[in-house]
């Protein structure tokens, strides 16, 4: 058959999702596998969100509100912005895709750090633009100086993932503000804050404040992480009304399901769920950091719900055989590393015990 696919699409390396628990159990003929691989909230969704989703189900003969009116209004209050400064997507992933569709084409360049979120190169290539990946610095933190130096007349979009996935590291407000001040005005700045609600350092940049100071700044957040609604697909972008209006142009009208809108709305009213999720994560991070370090495994400081660990070559596959799914980092050029999502205490203990056992085994 004639090769019909656009070359820049055919050349995209597919996104590698975490292995589903059921698939691993079937492959190994085991049960009780655990997944600490996709940065999901192990606490579960807010019970209020589940109830709202269940109630919304009886109305799914109707199309959802195409403008997410109620959710946008509630979210605007929550964030201290105007509803017109918000675009709700089927996950932050959809908003990333809209940025690519709206601002990138052949001949354009988009800059992002590497390793960082695997969707950036996909979004850029899908638009036929050129991806400019700038290596993280020696501490695996965004090298904002090098990213600024990579800006060219062709640059249309700069992605900053803060805190960064898959390293868990974050840049501080001073470095971030300095970087933004130096960025040309005619470049879209997309600040991906998927883990914002987990971050604890006090000098985290206030990217949202730049939305009003610098048109063309887009902050992305999601209900998939701390709100525990990854399976329902709700995320959003915060930007100036003009940019939001442009992103809306190619958005599918009914992109966020009726059930998802209802659940997200209810999740915003469940502060105790978010608080508990944050606390359980902080305790899990501290535990994992301590125990892995004691095993001689280097971990990086994390502002997220996951931990980058240099567990050694073969660790990922060995854990998998023991029914513990973590994310391999070989695809990011870090063959010795794994990304471990913080789980519930018993899951974290199982991971530590398994790693300890694997280390004690003669090879
Ligand atoms: C998880 C994640 C997202 C996307 O989440 P959605 O489920 O699409 O809302 C975006 N960026 C980063 C860095 C992430 O880790």
- Averaging pLDDT over every residue, what do you get? 96
Number of helices: 14
User: Could you give the distance between the termini?
Assistant: 49 Å
SSE sequence, one letter per element: HHEHHEHEHEHEHEHEEHHHEEHEEEH
Structural class: alpha/beta
Q: Indicate the proportion of strand residues.
A: 15-25%
Question: What is the domain tally?
Answer: 2
Q: Number of DSSP strands? A: 13
User: Quick one: biggest sheet?
Assistant: 7 strands, mixed
- Which CATH top level class of the largest domain fits? Alpha Beta
Low-confidence stretches: none
Helix percent reads: 25-40%
CATH-scheme architecture of the largest domain = 3-Layer(aba) Sandwich
Order of strands side by side in the largest beta sheet? 2-8-7-6-5-3-4
Word description of this protein:
It is a single chain. With 363 residues, this protein is an alpha/beta fold. The protein has 2 domains: 18-44 and 272-360, Aspartate Aminotransferase, domain 1, CATH 3.90.1150.10; 49-268, 3-Layer(aba) Sandwich (Aspartate Aminotransferase, domain 2). Helix content is 40%, strand content 15%. The protein has 14 helices and 13 strands. Strands 2-8-7-6-5-3-4 form a 7-stranded mixed β-sheet, with helices on both faces. A 4-stranded antiparallel β-sheet has the order 9-10-13-12, with helices on one face. A two-stranded parallel ribbon has the order 1-11. The termini are far apart. The protein binds pyridoxal-5'-phosphate. Pyridoxal-5'-phosphate binds next to helix 5.
């Amino acid at each position: 058959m004639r090769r019909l696919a656009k070359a820049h699409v055919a050349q995209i390396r597919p996104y590698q999702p975490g292995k589903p628990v059921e698939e691993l159990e079937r492959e190994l003929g085991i049960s009780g596998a655990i997944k600490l691989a996709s940065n999901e909230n192990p606490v579960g969704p807010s019970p209020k969100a589940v109830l709202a989703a269940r109630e919304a189900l009886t109305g799914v003969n109707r199309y959802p509100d195409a403008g997410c009116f109620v959710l946008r209004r509630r979210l605007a209050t929550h964030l201290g912005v105007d509803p017109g400064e918000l675009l709700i997507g089927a996950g932050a992933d959809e908003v990333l895709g809209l940025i690519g569709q709206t601002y990138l084409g052949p001949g354009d360049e988009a800059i992002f750090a590497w390793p960082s979120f695997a969707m950036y190169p996909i979004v850029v290539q899908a638009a036929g633009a050129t991806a400019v990946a700038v290596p993280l610095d020696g501490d695996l933190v965004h090298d904002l100086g090098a990213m600024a130096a990579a800006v060219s007349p062709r640059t249309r979009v700069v992605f900053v993932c803060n805190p960064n996935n898959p390293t868990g590291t974050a840049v501080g407000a001073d470095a971030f503000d300095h970087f933004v001040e130096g960025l040309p005005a005619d470049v879209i700045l997309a600040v991906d804050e998927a883990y914002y609600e987990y971050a604890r350092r006090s000098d985290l940049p206030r990217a949202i404040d730049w939305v009003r100071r610098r048109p063309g700044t887009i902050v992305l957040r999601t209900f998939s992480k701390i709100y525990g609604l990854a399976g329902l697909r709700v995320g959003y972008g915060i930007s100036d009304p003009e940019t939001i209006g442009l992103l809306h142009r190619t958005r599918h009208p009914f992109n966020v399901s009726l059930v998802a809108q209802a659940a997200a709305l209810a999740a915003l009213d469940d502060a105790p769920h978010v608080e508990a999720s944050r606390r359980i994560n902080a305790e899990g991070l501290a535990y994992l950091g301590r125990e892995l370090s004691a095993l001689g495994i280097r971990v990086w400081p994390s502002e997220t719900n996951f931990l980058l660990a240099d567990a050694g070559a073969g660790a990922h596959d060995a854990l998998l055989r023991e029914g513990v799914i973590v994310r391999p980092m070989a695809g990011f050029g870090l063959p010795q590393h794994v990304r471990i999502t913080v789980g519930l205490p018993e899951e974290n203990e199982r991971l530590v015990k398994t790693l300890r056992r694997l280390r004690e085994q003669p090879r």
